Amino acid sequence: MTVLAVPPTIVLAPMRRRHLRAVLQIEERTSTTPWSLGLFLAECRREERLYLVALDGTRVVGFAGMLFVAGEGHITTIAVDPDRHGERIGTRLLLGLLRGAVALDAAAVTLEVRASNGAALALYRRFGFAPAGVRKDYYSRPVEDALVLWLHDADAPEFAERCVAIEASLDAPLAAPIDVEEES
Ligand SMILES: CC(C)(COP(=O)(O)OP(=O)(O)OC[C@H]1O[C@@H](n2cnc3c(N)ncnc32)[C@H](O)[C@@H]1OP(=O)(O)O)[C@@H](O)C(=O)NCCC(=O)NCCS
Fold first, then answer.
1. Which residue among 117, 123, 166 is best mutated to probe the pocket of ligand 1, counting the most ligand atoms within 8 A of its Cβ?
2. Is the pTM of this model over 0.85?
């Protein structure tokens, strides 16, 4: 008998209350200063926010979020289940967030990242983020500087082409378009 290995299909969806138990479990495993349930709930409900989960079937395997201020996007969080690192789930989440940013007319996107976080830095560089400054001792547990990264011209055709190339490198395209206007 031939057994065909079917790659898991990861679907992005807006973060909802029902996802938060799993989101918190991932948060606890990936952050030394984890967000609380109340903070996730409040963020998801605020205006000018885009919070996504990555689902493998019904299982939450990652999440990411962004807020919008004065036409700029600020990535507030991104994390993937440690058992699923390296499966390009973070890449999918960032693709979804950045396409959402463009759809919401944010042509510039920024974030902070621990200076030692090689995996995250590699992920952001691939999308064209570049360092623009350092926030001294920004993080605690352990205390560490943050690098401030910016992505400009996210509304330019070159960035859309970059996203198409990144998506083409995945084992399957993003499974569903994100409805950034969907109500909770
Ligand atoms: C950062 C994070 C979200 C990446 O998620 P992921 O699903 O493992 O990432 P991907 O599989 O999409 O990999 C993206 C890129 O990161 C790099 N990368 C992934 N894991 C890496 C590792 N352990 N070491 C170095 N680079 C790594 C690779 O360059 C990879 O690109 P490639 O697929 O072209 O090789 C994940 O490591 C994570 O949850 N970390 C803890 C939370 C965190 O640090 N969040 C960032 C806060 S700013």
1. 123
2. yes
